[in-house]
Design brief:
219 residues; Purple Acid Phosphatase, chain A, domain 2; 5-stranded mixed sheet; globular; binds manganese (II) ion
């Protein structure tokens, strides 16, 4: 049994399946998906359906899911979200606005975890500020940091290992960070990089390139 993390899949469903295959992932293993599941590439619905059906997957929220959910509260976010890949998600779900999504999807997105812990590992989309006195006591400010920040705080005196996505890195740079306190596993699959799986038990890294089936025919 192994526990893995994958981040920033962004609708690359076929790349995701090919990575699970490479991991020899079975129902006995566990998977954390660190947000930015949707947007930019065409297969967000297929990916969400698949994750919903996995009993051994814990999905977390990214800034893209947060943007989509914000459109349900206030329409001023709608055009911004559409312009950063939300349009592809709407097409994938065959709706014109997030409010038309089936309730089961809205509930699923609404219930995504903001962070999770696994032993010393703290997992979230963009990083938890672990130098704060009460890092896990949630406020609106901390939630925003966890989903959006691009310059995460480091130096936790060996107390924690932060595992995040959000900022695309070259896979070689990710490999070099395996012993560090902050491990960013976004291999930039969506930007023709790699989709990366990180094993929390062994700190091994596996990756696959963007699958050709994920690339829209008109690109
Ligand atoms: Mn992100």
């Amino acid at each position: 049994m192994k526990t893995w993390a994958i981040s920033d899949i962004h609708g690359c469903f076929h790349s995701f399946l090919s990575l699970l295959n490479k991991m020899d992932f079975t129902f006995e293993d566990k998977l954390f998906v660190l947000g930015d599941i949707i947007d930019r590439w065409p297969y967000s619905r297929e990916l969400v359906d698949y994750l919903m059906s996995m009993k051994n997957c814990t999905p977390l929220m990214g800034n893209h899911e947060e943007m989509m959910l914000s459109c349900l509260e206030n329409d001023k976010y709608f055009y911004l979200w559409c312009s950063v890949g939300g349009q592809e998600t709407l097409e994938s779900f065959n709706v014109g606005h997030p409010c038309e999504l089936d309730e089961k999807y809205i509930n699923w997105f609404g219930e995504l975890h903001i962070y999770v812990t696994y032993g010393k590992h703290v997992l979230s989309h963009a990083g938890v500020d672990l130098n704060q006195p009460y890092p896990f006591k949630m406020t609106d400010e901390k939630r925003e940091y966890i989903l959006w920040n691009r310059d995460v705080q480091r130096d936790f005196s060996g107390k924690y290992i932060l595992v995040i996505g959000h900022t695309p890195l070259d896979v070689e740079l990710i490999k070099d960070s395996m012993e560090e306190e902050v491990i960013c596993i976004d291999g930039g699959c969506v930007f023709d990089g790699q989709l990366v799986a990180f094993c929390l038990d062994t700190h091994e890294l596996l990756s696959v390139p963007l699958h050709e089936y994920d690339i829209p025919k008109n690109v």
